[in-house]
């Protein structure tokens, strides 16, 4: 089976938003080539035979990013490509830099799609404890405390390399004590849910509005036995979900966080934590205001590049 690839040349800050647009328009796979990913790499065993290689010597983008979505060959591209181009251009209305507005389409065979990103994606130590490992890599922990998250990045974004994902993994590592219940809203590849299980969270429910993302998360969960009991489902934010949990995590765009805030407040236990990211500089104050107006107390805020991560909590009964 052949596929049609649609590549959007954009900025690093818009990678997740462009990925969402492509999957929302019907892409059944996403490939990301982001110059920012190489900023996190240090010399290591990246060679074909395990030899030490300097990442600067590996061919890669020097600036910005290219996000490629893979569409079934029967997709009517003359309609899809202009729609994607229009939606990408509108990202500037949400405070994101859409890049140079370049959108191109090409035909690619299934074998190429299955292997093309492997030369770019390598084990990455994201936090003090957590390391993201592509499923095809034979990686041994450097330290006893290191916990591995195996991912197949071929079907959804959220591989741990983007600042928003890293901010949330660091936040989880900071707040989790063990045994908590958690909801992951907009789970994508499932990386945050898997990370939560690795560091001791108890019951985890993960939802995404995109069926492709949910299938991807299911595949990645299968690669990580510690995460086998995660509950997965297709759902729009927390619509229709009425439960009480200790933590709600959402790594989604600020405009989508806004309607989630009252839902998260309802579904958190008193004292429960709301961890959010996907918040670009221009939207940070909006999210702070909405959180405070809802009754949340902001505990801390971290920043990586142009992105913010916020830890807030629902007041305990004695507050």
Automatic annotation (TrEMBL):
Its EC number is 2.1.1.-. InterPro entries: Ribosomal_L11_MeTrfase_PrmA, Ribosomal_PrmA_MeTrfase, SAM-dependent_MTases_sf. Coiled coil: none annotated. The keyword Lyase does not apply. Gene3D superfamilies: Vaccinia Virus protein VP39. The keyword Amino-acid biosynthesis does not apply. It is an enzyme of class 2 (transferase). It is found in: Cytoplasm. Belongs to the methyltransferase superfamily. PrmA family. This is Ribosomal protein L11 methyltransferase. The lineage of its organism: Bacteria, Bacillati, Bacillota, Bacilli, Lactobacillales.
């Amino acid at each position: 089976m052949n596929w049609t690839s649609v590549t959007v040349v954009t900025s690093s800050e818009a990678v997740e938003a462009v990925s969402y647009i492509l999957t929302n328009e019907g892409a059944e796979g996403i490939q990301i080539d982001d110059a920012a990913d190489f900023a996190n790499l240090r010399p290591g065993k990246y060679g074909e035979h395990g030899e030490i290689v300097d990442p600067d010597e590996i061919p890669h983008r020097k600036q910005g990013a290219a996000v490629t979505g893979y569409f079934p060959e029967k997709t009517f591209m003359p309609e899809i490509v202009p729609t994607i181009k229009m939606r990408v251009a509108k990202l500037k209305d949400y405070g994101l830099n859409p890049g140079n507005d370049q959108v191109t389409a090409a035909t690619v065979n299934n074998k190429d799609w299955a292997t093309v990103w492997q030369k770019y994606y390598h084990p990455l130590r994201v936090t003090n404890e957590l390391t993201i490992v592509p499923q095809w890599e034979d990686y041994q922990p450097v330290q006893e405390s290191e916990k591995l998250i195996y991912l197949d990045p071929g079907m959804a974004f959220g591989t741990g390399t983007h600042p928003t994902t890293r901010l949330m993994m660091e936040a989880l590592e900071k707040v989790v004590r063990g045994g908590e219940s958690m909801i992951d809203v907009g789970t994508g590849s499932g990386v945050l849910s898997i990370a939560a299980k690795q560091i001791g969270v108890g019951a985890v429910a993960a939802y995404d509005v995109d069926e492709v993302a949910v299938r991807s998360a299911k595949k990645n969960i299968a690669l990580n036995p510690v995460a086998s009991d995660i509950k997965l489902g297709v759902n729009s934010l927390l619509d229709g979900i009425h439960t009480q949990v200790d933590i709600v995590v959402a790594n989604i765009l600020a405009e989508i966080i806004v309607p989630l805030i009252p839902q998260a407040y309802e579904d958190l236990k008193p004292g429960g934590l709301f961890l959010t990211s996907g918040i670009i500089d221009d939207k940070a104050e909006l999210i702070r205001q909405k959180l405070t107006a809802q009754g949340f107390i902001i505990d801390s805020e971290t920043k990586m590049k142009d992105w913010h991560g916020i830890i807030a909590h629902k007041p305990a009964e004695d507050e």
